[in-house]
Predict the 3D structure of the following.
Amino acid sequence: MCWRWNKHLLTGILDSHIIDYPTPKNLNYMWSFGSTAGICLGIQMLTGIFLAMHYCPKMEYAFYSIEHIMRNVKYGWLIRYIHANGASMFFIVVYSHIFRGLYYGSYMYPRHYLWMSGVVIFILMMATAFMGYVLPWGQMSFWGATVITNLFSTIPFVGRDIVEWLWGGFSVNNPTLNRFFSLHYTLPFVIAGAAIVHLALLHDVGSNNPLGVEYYGDKISFYPYFYVKDLFSLFILLIVFSVFLYFFPNELNHPDNYVPADPLTTPAHIVPEWYFLPFYAILRSVPHKLGGVLAMGGAIVLLLILPYLNTSRVRSTYFRPLYAQAFWFLFFDFLFLGWIGQKEVAEPYTYLGIIATLYYFFFFLVLVPLLGILEEKLICYDVEKI
Amino acid sequence: MLTCASILCMHSLWLLTSRVRMFSRAAAAFKRVRFIPPSAQDGKGKLMGALVAGTAVAGGVAVCSADHVPSIDYGWNHHGLLASYDYPAVRRGFQVYREVCASCHALEHTYFRNLVGVTHTEEEVKKIAESYDVVDGPNAEGEMFERPGKLSDKIPGPYANKEAARAANNGAYPPDLSLITKARPGGVDYIFALLTGYIDPPEGKAILSGLNYNPYFPGGAIAMARQLQDGQLEYEDGTPATTSQMSKDVATFLAWAAEPEHDYRKKAGVQWIGALLVALALTGFYKRFRWSPLKTAKFHYVA
């Protein structure tokens, strides 16, 4: 008997997880975001490794080393723009992936651990992206770092100590930049590990599908069917990515980040990167410092515990007319929060932000548990009537 | 069809992201005012002030910030998906920078070698570089010395350090210009608007001595006085050196200084996106080809 590669311990893993892996036939293109997110991570890690060869994590040189990459390193501008815009693309893909999960009930039993591992990846991504934005040491890097690290100062009694421990000094300073660089380089490998866990948990139970109904027979292999389908999605992503990359490379950046960091001049508006804006809006909508931080943290924790808040046994929103309304309202509410996050703190934005924040929490804390029960009752009522 | 769709997509993106987001009447009103030659505009401070106030009410919050007038889209030569810089303008702009701006503003990320083949020939740039004194060293005796500039040198700035720059400018720091079009909202439009936008302050607006009124500058009070006057320098190519001509040229030059890769980037983008579109079409075909047995499968139930 000849050696069969798909029965070998190592190559067999490859075979059973990305070649022969049984996949529901009815997955639509919304199921492409998982693989494209993995590719985004790969792009970020690869370009990051090359950037780190030329970048200098020292206060006096960081900004200049970025300009050195942009001007003197062969294709340095391309590598850096890929890395900077790649972060945005990664978040576009991951937000789509999250909302896909919310729509098709992919967070429900038996995929609750899968969903939670995903939220952990999302949190790690946010930490990595934030620290990455600090590295160019522009005005927005410096002041963003100051604002965000200061959030920890709201913790009673030990807040100040924690912040100084994070800074490695008494302000955002050279040690802060150094450790952010170190962590920014390390965390993607942690994310990659978490992504493998995420994939293992997925393949343990198998993919959800648009109907949300489990069936174990009649699946198709990943290769070639979903390989080509994901490849098609990947090219669409790369085209959108390239339009930004080649034609609008600074559109998602803030002009202030091309001004070298100056601790003596505060920018008129300190705004985080666009992908943090919804959470930033939640932070600002609570008129209490600690309360705001708790609300922002809570907004993410709610995602984490969503499988336990849910009461519905029907996964897909196709069969949940009430939840569908609430879901789409949440979707636009989230976009709206993002818009609020980049506006100045003034009426009517603060007021609208409070309403949008309230709906976000109302959705997870009230609508998710309530609609599950209500919809089931209505179905039972309807069935009994017949 | 795919190509058409993607061109449409790119076009709408361009529309979305271009600076002309201000579809309101306010933008049109500013446009009318802005294109009055700056010399003729000096007497129109009040009109300007009234317009600012008027449009702030009519045009809504998106158009007018509280303390300055946002610059509008002037339709630059290089602001198209396939457009390159206007290189004669970049060359003239370098002359404006060298003869006017360089007395206060550095261009610290730009090397003489960057100009070669862009604004000047290698011989010309060598001559320009030699006209600068560059501090080098230390030599064998441990002394710093001055020598004529070389192609590999950065264009020397006017001041030794930030403190010297502040001391020479009444406490105001003239920012480095090599990234300025990327570092200001509005970019190259802002530079043009600022350079041509000096007018008398509207009534009731107090400007401290040593500062100048410019509605495009955040806060309105800018330390830099109006620098460009009609006929102040003589262009090599005989272009009339009006204020707006010089402003346009120097703004184009600064756009190049901030994004020297710009032309190559767009060209590479067209090629790369073109290749991706072909790959997308082929993959689309391959996907349908592979899936066709599944898509055409028929389940037939016999009752």
Q: What stands out?
A: The first helix of chain B runs from residue 2 to 17. The mean pLDDT of chain B is 83.
